[in-house]
Amino acid sequence: MKATAWMGTDSVKVIDVPDPKIMNARDAIVRISTTAICGSDLHLYHGYIPAMRKGDILGHEFMGEVVEVGPQVRNLAPGDRVVVPFPIACGHCSSCQRGLYSVCENSNPNAGIAEKIMGHSPAGIFGYSHLLGGYAGGQAEYARVPFADVGPIKVPDEVSDDQAVMLADVFPTGYMGAEMCDIKPGQVIAVWGAGPVGLLAAASARLLGAERVIVIDRFPYRLRLAEEHIDAETINYDDVDVLDALNAMTAGRGPDACIDAVGLEGHHGNAAMYAYDRAKQAARVETERPFALRQAILACRSGGVVSVVGAYGGFVDKFPMGAFMNRSLVMRTGQCHVQRYTRPLLERIQRGEIDPSFIVSHRMPLRDAPKGYKIFQKKQDDCTKVLLKV
Amino acid sequence: MSRVDTVLLPELDGPVPATPPSALGLLSLALGVGTLVAPGPVARLTGVDDSPAARAVLPAIGLRELGSAAGLLSGRRPAGWAWSRVAGDAMDLTLLGRALADRGGARRRRVALTTLAVAGITAVDVLAAVRVGQARRARARVIRLEIAVTVNRSPAEAYRFWRDMENLPRFMAHLESVRADDLRRSHWIARGPAGHRVEWDAEIIDDQPNKSITWRSLPGTGVPNAGRVCFVPAPGDRGTEVRVELRYAPPAGALGRAVAKILGEEPEQQVRDDLRRFKQVLETGEVIRSEGSPNGISVRQQAMQRPAQPLPASRR
Ligand SMILES: [Zn+2]
Ligand SMILES: [Zn+2]
Question: How far is the CA of A168 from the centre of ligand 1 (A)?
């Protein structure tokens, strides 16, 4: 089959690899119809996530048709059209049973390596390095889906591929980012990052009853999407000081909750600050450029919530602990527990409450994946989200 | 909290000394007290009663014996005290040698007998000191591991799975097979890289249903080992804390190198991985595989895991 493989920093290729096989009794094989390139694929592309190897198949957002199931999979059959959550979760450990699917205790066969860096291992993730399991990804013609009796859900005909594939990661992740804010009527929510997750976090904040939503980014075309589709207010940090702007917009209080949907490859309006973290990251002295996180903590109203769904890999420098502690902030974090959200969010799409595919800017065949990575990386051609059609 | 107490394993404590230090201590005590309480008869018996110097030297020797006795009976640094006895013996032999040269007749015969007796004691002391040292080094070589995992299953389920020893190779990466000969005895085969094989027989020495299992290798194996697994209900309804204690004495030589290879450079990490797979099997039914570690349980595969590789041109 054809698959998109990581070939080294800033290099992906579509190569021929062997078809996936059933390896465990609860596996399914899915013939992929639509798969997406994610902002966190760019972290792999740029080489910031350790334990990638040349030839690893990328992709953790995909959907398609079940073509084969292992003997223990009874809820799915060949022919079912399914979308697959990106965290691999067993459904039986105590984390899974508490709904914490992205920290499943059984799905990372390389947990020993992850423990050395993170203390405890999170769940395995498709196409996301040997640190998180060494699973082949879904930017390919076929994918093996472990624990297929727990993760994938069937997609009804009236929901399009473009809508459904958003349920693999970005929509549930954005939604969880908003849900962690405990939004109450009258509240103002600020979102750092107008990428797919940031936009869907802002849209979800609206769904959950936020009175005002403020989106912060530096690309005018992405901020325009936030204004047009979500009726959000926007701040371009290349033009104004974010903290001043937020204080002015909230009469000195600060937003009630701040969502970091940026993660480890943030940018900063201040060239010196950006250069400082960029240099440290390039030398691998720190793994993150946590501008959004620092700003979110400083901006948040006292007693408010900082919700982190942007991806981080390692250690953060200059974390404003004084502000965080002295102002009674709460931080909530997590890779999204996607399995918890797929069904309710599918129902919201079916009811017409939201169409998350408004973030999609590009659709192209799988063989053009290298081009898709490039324009998404360089934000060319007003690129927000690239779907690959197989 | 049920703390895992030490598994008793005499064979892992190294060779037992022929004359235990406490016996040497009692001998020292007897000699010391005798010499101090009755220096006259002791001097006559040993054949040095004609020397005025003996009156001064004998109590000193008695005090030295008492010192050795106290040291040996205290049980601390037995090897050091045993060697101190050897040094004392050497001193006594020197003095006796000088006395032998000066004397004649019946007295000379008594000094000769005393010298012979002291030489015998010296031999025992040397042997004891050597053995005590060996035992201490053997104990220092024994590797002890204590590792635990929480499994979302009842103690009874976890116990039942482990008690069927033939299940162990399903999650212990270095085990090729375990054959249960009967309810207590089993035959274990471990295989490492490069076809090295180590086999041993083990027996269950304590079995507390749903609580713990203690086993050890049978005497005579090249790799003495012992272990105990306890199944403790985890607080807050979270299943079972499975606590494993392992002890083994890697031998020297070629077998030792094979064992070291099988157990890897980080035996602790390997046991942790084994326990993680035990949890996987109990909670999900299987050891989970990925394309990066397709053989699930093979350590070698895990170390050498490779991503998808391009197909050879012939198969495209
Ligand atoms: Zn993603
Ligand atoms: Zn789980």
Answer: 8
Strand (E) positions, A45-115? Answer: 56-57, 61-69, 81-84, 87-88
CATH topology of domain A173-333: Rossmann fold (3.40.50)
Task: Please report which ligand is nearest the Cα atom of A85.
Answer: 1
Specify the pairing of strand A28-37 against strand A386-389: antiparallel
Domain ranges of chain B: 14-139, 142-288
Give pLDDT, residue B10: 55
Q: What are the sequence ranges of the domains in chain A?
A: 2-169+336-389, 173-333
The CATH number of the domain covering residues in B142-288: 3.30.530.20
Distance A278 CA to ligand 2 centre (A): 36
Inter-chain residue contact A54 with B290, CB threshold 8 Å = no
Q: Of A55, A92, A106, which is closest to B308 when you measure between CB atoms?
A: A55
Whole-number Å distance, alpha carbon A173 to ligand 2 midpoint, is: 19
Homologous superfamily assigned to A2-169+336-389 = Medium-chain alcohol dehydrogenases, catalytic domain (3.90.180.10)
Angle, to 10 degrees, between the axis of helix B39-46 and the axis of helix B52-74?
Answer: 100
Of A108-112, B126-130, B155-159, B287-291, least confident by mean pLDDT is B126-130
Across the interface, whether the CB atoms of A109 and B272 are under 8 A apart is answered: no
- What is the gyration radius of the CA atoms in chain B, in angstroms? 30
Q: Which of A74, A106, A126, A131 to substitute to test the interface with B, most B CBs within 10 Å?
A: A106
- Which of A18, A25, A146 lies closest to B285 in CB terms? A25
B312 neighbourhood in chain A, CB within 8 Å: none
H-helix or E-strand containing A344? helix A338-350
**Which chain A residues are within 8 Å of B307, Cβ to Cβ?**
5, 53-57, 130, 134, 136
**How far, in Å, CA of A376 to CA of B287, rounded?**
38
> CA B169 from chain center: how many Å?
26
| Cβ <8 Å between B305 and A146 | no
8 Å CB contact between B30 and B56: no
pLDDT at B311: 46
User: A100: exposed, middle or buried (C-beta count within 10 Å: 0-12, 13-18, 19+)?
Assistant: buried
pLDDT digits (tens, 9 = 90+) for A172-188: 999 999 999 999 999 99
Phi and psi at residue A335, in whole multiples of 5°? Answer: -60, 145
> pLDDT for A352-370, tens place per residue?
999 999 999 999 999 999 9
Query: A172 near A89, Cβ under 8 Å?
Result: no
CA–centroid distance, residue A374 to ligand 2 (Å): 35
Compare all CA atoms of chain A with the CA of B149 and give the residue at the minimum distance. Answer: A105
Residue B302 touches chain A, beta carbons under 8 Å? yes
- Chain-centroid distance, C-alpha A242: 24
Gap between the Cα atoms of B62 and B69, Å rounded = 11
* A94–B273 CB contact, under 8 Å: no
CB pairs under 8 A between A and B: 109
Average pLDDT of chain B to the nearest whole number? 82
